[in-house]
DNA sequence: TAAAAACCTTGATATAGATCAAGTTGCTTT
DNA sequence: AAAGCAACTTGATCTATATCAAGGTTTTTA
């Protein structure tokens, strides 16, 4: 399980054997069965989580029980709840596994230690935060500007693999449309 | 103009006189008249921009000429286009002044120098990036989950001052609804 | 200070997408 | 392998919001 994380890191920066030992020493390995929660709303989230295998979703539940998917995380993506982690307040999010999955958890203090000890690791993480922010901006743009069809096309464009990997009604939820609408949009898109 | 930036910093971290001199030495001071562009799409954005005075908007234009407002930035907020800055590619965004404004620009190399030389400054900036990311997540949630009325209420909640400071049709654009709908929503909200 | 723009509101109408409902297919679980 | 559940589709209808249009108000500019 650690090898995947190690490869992910070594593909981007150069670290010594000892550096990897240090990282490994603070990793918490966790296997999740399909449908198992990694985080439930109301809990306080304490980690940074790296997905080695499988796929998770991060969602919020509204007052009517409606689920709204904030994001998916597959292998080599990060997940968690930055807001709860930063503020120490209970999370409004739920994270659960869409498939049997394997994740690595690193507590906030350990993570900060790594960033302090390993400048290259710190840069790597910073780059990811930057990229996530940019992705969020683009998602906001699509949410406030696009039609249902444009939203779906841009999803396929950006996440071609997820398009077939996660249930359609979850993609609909991610896009902020109903499953019925997505089904009809797909029929249209298939025609052209 | 620099005093505002200095106060903003000193309210959050402690720096020496020399540190401020260093910061000041890389600041580019710029005054903008109402409607003046700070960035036009197609240009490559090279700075981090801190708003000392006034208010700007950041927006994208779609193929039909429709404007979609990504964000507002008033005094003591940051603005710019992180994506263009990071990738070096032409920006898809426009930034212009809604009021006569004053901004401080810091080029990317200078900014990185400051972050490297002044760890506290680096932490400060990191905190801002984190908070912006969290704000983006919350905006995504509202965009995919809320009705027009809920969107407007949450805007008033989050930005009570902007509610009266920027034109209504721009708030509508920010929320992803039409100006007419916003006008009607406001009438409803006023009743209750 | 008058003319021109920009802005906001209100009404009438249109429509994209939501909701409700039923049937089908395809996974899980025992 | 059957039963039960979850996922997808399709049709009918409804509704929140968009679009189109016009008038009134405020702000800008000459």
Characterize the structure shown:
Two copies of one chain form a homodimer. Chain A is of the alpha+beta class. Chain A has two domains: 2-130, Jelly Rolls; 146-192. Helix content of chain A is 52%, strand content 22%. The first copy, chain A, has nine helices and eight strands. Chain A has helices at 2-10, 17-26, 82-87, 108-117, 119-145, 148-158, 160-165, 168-175, 179-191; strands at 28-32, 37-39, 47-53, 55-61, 67-74, 78-79, 94-97, 101-107. A four-stranded antiparallel sheet of chain A has the order 1-8-3-6. In chain A, strands 2-7-4-5 form a four-stranded antiparallel sheet. In chain A, β4 (55-61) and β5 (67-74) form a beta hairpin. In chain A, α4 (108-117) packs across α5, α6 packs across α9 and α8 (168-175) crosses α9 (179-191). Chains A and B meet through α3, α5 and α8 of A and α3, α5 and α8 of B. The first copy, chain A, binds a DNA duplex (30 and 30 nucleotides) through α9.
Summed up:
Chain A has helices at residues 2-10, 17-26, 82-87, 108-117, 119-145, 148-158, 160-165, 168-175, 179-191; strands spanning 28-32, 37-39, 47-53, 55-61, 67-74, 78-79, 94-97, 101-107. With 192 residues, chain A is an alpha+beta fold.
């Amino acid at each position: 399980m650690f090898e995947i994380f190690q490869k992910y890191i070594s593909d981007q920066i150069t670290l010594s054997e000892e550096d990897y030992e240090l990282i490994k020493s603070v990793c918490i390995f966790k296997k999740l069965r399909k449908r198992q929660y990694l985080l439930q709303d109301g809990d306080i989230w304490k980690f940074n989580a790296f997905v080695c295998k499988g796929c998770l979703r991060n969602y919020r539940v509204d007052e009517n029980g409606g689920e709204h998917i904030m994001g998916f995380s597959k292998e080599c993506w990060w997940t968690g709840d930055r807001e709860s982690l930063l503020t120490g307040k209970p999370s409004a999010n739920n994270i659960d596994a869409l498939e049997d999955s394997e994740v690595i958890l690193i507590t906030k203090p350990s993570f900060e230690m790594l960033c302090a000890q390993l400048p290259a690791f710190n840069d790597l993480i910073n780059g990811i935060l930057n990229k996530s922010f940019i992705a969020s901006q683009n998602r906001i743009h699509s949410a406030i500007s696009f039609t249902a069809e444009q939203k779906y096309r841009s999803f396929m464009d950006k996440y071609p693999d997820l398009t077939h990997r996660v249930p359609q009604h979850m993609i609909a939820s991610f896009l902020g449309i109903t499953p019925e609408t997505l089904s009809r949009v797909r029929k249209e898109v298939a025609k052209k």
